[in-house]
Amino acid sequence: MSAEPTGALDTAWGQIAHPRDARSGVGSFTRSRVDRIITIAAGIGSLILGVQAFLTALSAPGDERAGWHEPLMVAVFGPLAIMIIACFLDRAVRLCAGAFAVLYVLALAAWPVATAGVQPRSIDEPWIWYLVNIATLAAVLAFPLPLQIAWTVLAPVLFGVVRLIQGGFHSKFWMILGLDVSFALILGGVLLALGWLLRSMATNVDETRTRAVSSYADAAAADAAEQERMAMAALMHDSVLAALIAAERAQTPRERTLAATMAREALTGLAGTEADGGDGDDDPRAADEIADDIEAAAAELGVELVVERSITEPSPIVPGWVARALTLAATQSVANAVQHADGVGLTVRVTTGSGAISIVVSDAGDGFDLAEIPDDRLGIRASIIARVAAVGGSTDVETGPDGTTVRLEWREPAS
Prior knowledge:
Elements: H1 3-14, H2 29-59, H3 69-89, H4 93-114, H5 132-142, H6 145-166, H7 171-249, H8 253-273, H9 287-300, E1 308-310, H10 320-341, E2 347-353, E3 356-363, H11 381-390, E4 394-400, E5 403-411
């Protein structure tokens, strides 16, 4: 990738706020918009069918008994009007739609009572029929999928039953009601399937977007950490180089002491840059905590390791910068054992006593010859031996055909 696109991405990413929950906001972006589209479409469709049903109820003489027509219209069209307004305003849609769906079914259930003793004036559908699929649509807006399916079937079938009851189960109603109920079931099924399909697609899009944003955020964080690590490594390289030049040019004891101090500080800083936490704090660390840190570092390498512990009281007070160097050196020893000995017989033991802490890393590999390791391979020389020496510790490496043992030791300075 060229430098220009990379810089553009970095600039764009830098304009975005990154709180810990920044990724959660993208989780329902598409779903919320699809729900809004469904709500608006439902409001428009309900308005059209509702006006048709309302005009039919006003113009055609009702089949209901005296005193039932107007209350039924209020009980049905009132909640329907509120649902339509809620759909357009996007306020309390589920509550209003659920109320209409329930009240419509109750109105259908009351239809045999409202028409008891009154013969239908024709076999044409009454006004309440035009709202059957609006009840299905309201269920799609308000209820979970199982209830949506129940309402899709219940409303048409209930209409057919109450209409047959009103007509006394006369044969002339069977054919027309069969067609009406079948049509309502098919249309309701289409509405239900479309709602489920659109919401499922939106949910999948949101989940994919969330994973993508999360992956990009992780990659950006890893890249930032790597860039910082490279910058720190370059700085430490310059520090080490300056210390070497000072050591080469040192002529007097004072100059040699200053060069040694520069080298110690450079190596300590170099050790700190390899830890994720940077230099960290210098609060003292207990031997148990150092053992825990080694286990955690080994786990990051993919090694399930239980550090053996033999810790006596009082254990030495280990400064934070010393503890980091010991932990990093031990982790490097574990990495070498895994890389060159396949982790065969790998054990790590932490012991304390007489104001000293000792870390022993052993494996049962084939061993190696330290003298034959090329000078540019610094895994042991710099990452282990020099690192421990930089904090005033000592390293002993024993290797042979039966395995390798790396012993790291640090002792409290005499007071």
